[in-house]
Amino acid sequence: MEDKNVLEMTEVKETAQTDAQQVSGLVTKDSALPVGEKFMAQKANVLKENLVPTHVSYEYTKGTYRTPVQMGVVTAFGSRFISPAHQRGIRNSVDFYVPEGIQIRSPADGIINEIVENSKSSGMSTKYWLKGNGVGIKCPNGEHVWMEHLQHGFATKLGLKIGQEVKACDIVGISGNTGFTENPHIHMEVLRFTGDPSSNESVENGNNYVTLKIRFDERDIPFDLYLEERKKPEEPASAAPATATPERPAA
């Protein structure tokens, strides 16, 4: 029986030329979103309450990664300027704004090592910081993928288990709107743990990792997202449009 809460990912032409036209417009338009006073206040609260890891990395990922969804369903995306939460250790995270109910694909081969699926709540108060549902994948190269704000009960619906092996583009989630977020989107990180890797390989355990700059597969994003964002003004001064509002990362 078809689950009406799950929408199949739409088909898009997988050529670098098509994707470049499709994606670069989004980056130009949305990665330097006006921040406004509300955005800046949320950013200050995130830092004040020490919600993000303090270590910063300027490294790029070893491998290349697929985006969590095909770019044809994405309405806005970006890294540092799309969210007040993308600071310090999670500054390299990337948000993809999509409707709720979209199937999410694994960005790489790996093993599912973390599932959080019991939350039904969301909001821009920091009390929702640890309320985001998500899935973690450990990759063969030692890097970890974390995707957050997923739908309540997504793993149960999809039959996902800890320790399950997945291939790139296998379905591993359903988009939602849980945790530190206002509008539905997928928060994606590729990270490296900085502590004892045998003890706390969990983004929910706090200040023990740094995010890496993601090298995306050219079929999805055929340019360096972080270099594109450096061309934008860091802190424009007007209110953020409703299409791409702040988000929360994994903490």
What would you note in describing this structure?
- This protein has 251 residues and is of the alpha+beta class.
- It has a single domain, classed as Glucose Permease (Domain IIA), CATH 2.70.70.
- The protein contains four helices and 14 strands.
- The strands form four sheets. Strands 2, 3, 5, 7, 8, 9, 12 and 13 form an eight-stranded antiparallel β-sheet that branches. A two-stranded parallel ribbon has the order 1-14.
- A hairpin with a 5-residue loop joins strand 7 and strand 8.
- It is globular, with a radius of gyration of 17 Å.
Ordered list of secondary-structure elements with their pairings:
Elements: H1 16-30, H2 36-48, E1 60-65, E2 76-78, E3 94-97, E4 103-105, E5 110-116, E6 122-123, E7 133-138, E8 144-150, H3 154-158, E9 165-166, E10 171-174, E11 179-180, E12 185-193, E13 209-211, E14 213-216, H4 225-230
Parallel strand pairs: 1-14, 6-11
Antiparallel strand pairs: 2-3, 3-12, 4-10, 5-7, 5-9, 7-8, 8-12, 12-13
